[in-house]
Amino acid sequence: MNSPTQQSYLEGWLKFFSSAEMPILRKTARQLEAARSQIDHVNGRDITEIVLHDPLLALRVLAFIQEFRSRHLHREITNIAHAVMMLGVEPFFRKFDQPLALEAKLADRPVALLGVLQVIMRTQRASRYAHEWAFARYDLNVEEVALAALLHDTAEILLWCFAPEQAMDIQGRLHADKSLRSASVQQQVLGFTLAELQLALCHAWQLPELLITLMDDANAHLPRVQNVKLAVNLARHSVEGWTDAAIPDDLAAIQKLLNIDYDTLLLRLELTPEMLLACRAQPVVPAEPAAETLVATPVAFAQDDSLDALLADVSPTDETLLVPAAEMTEDDLSGALLDMP
Fold first, then answer.
1. How far apart are CA 327 and CA 339, in angstroms?
2. pLDDT, averaged across the chain
3. What are phi and psi of 24, to 5 degrees?
4. What is the pTM of this model?
């Protein structure tokens, strides 16, 4: 339970975030503008696909639809496709007209910009993992699981957007001492953990209880929550390569969740030979034999391709974008942002 001091800190941050204008990715804004220009040929599925690539816009859509739903419908809306359907195409474009671009908001803070883009890339990867594994598990609503993974680290994204000094402080401490736990550093810097802020924001914005449950790691005994948590963990641990010390435990847990063997899991992840060697060099607890009925389409997550797809207008060969922002020099940052108009 939060202490009075923690609760006071949280309430202050909640008020701040609730009154701030939420930005979206510039790429998303351009895609929305392109879709608006041919609105007669755009449907809800097209809009949903755009929204699901941007956790900030997905959050805005969900938060707004909860207010809309309370006036028109009592049933919870737990995925973006239903939210867009409820709004309609033209009302959607009117509501989300001329959004603030994240890159414009942080134009004078290149370190913060790189930091938040790296987190967004990670959430996209987590969402894809979660979607794939939920499909393999015959989940009745795969989209809910994928959306929960996409939004799981929203508080961290918002911290980079609106309080970059604290975000850089946390990142710097964690990179300086690998033995530190993220939650303890967050508590020292903020007075609470990002997980606590995340849940508080979800309740303040009246997000669906089902999604809140899926995003709460305290419910990890539930298979759907395990799906989300493991996807988030693997995305976080693999974002800078496949040699993180936590990855063997991640892979063992995923094997158990999907009931597949180690080699099948690596094939599902479509790792490159170099990545395979890195993984095989680390011991993994054997899982139960693979079930032939659980074969699903594999998904590839090449680091460069993922970040290129996210940024679009950044130089596609610039590997500096995959380096932790806290470890980059000013020249590295300038070079990384050189191609951004």
1. 21
2. 82
3. -135, 165
4. 0.81
Nearest to 82 by CA among 94, 101, 69: 69
What is the tally of structural domains in the chain? Answer: 1
Mapped onto helix, strand or coil, the DSSP state of residue 323 is coil
Domain-located, residue 257 = no
Alpha helices in the chain (DSSP H): 4-19, 26-37, 44-51, 55-72, 80-87, 89-95, 102-105, 110-136, 142-151, 154-162, 164-176, 182-190, 194-204, 209-215, 223-238, 247-258, 262-269, 273-280, 303-311, 330-337
Q: What is the 8-class DSSP label of residue 24?
A: B
The answer to whether residue 251 is domain-embedded is: no
> For position 88, which CATH number holds?
1.10.3210.10
- Residue 229, token pair as written in the block: 């948590």
Phi, psi for 212 (deg, rounded to 5): -60, -45
Token duo for residue 254? 């995923």
pLDDT in tens, 92-109: 999 999 899 999 999 999
For residues 177-198, give the mean pLDDT: 92
Note down the domain range covering 236.
1-240+302-332
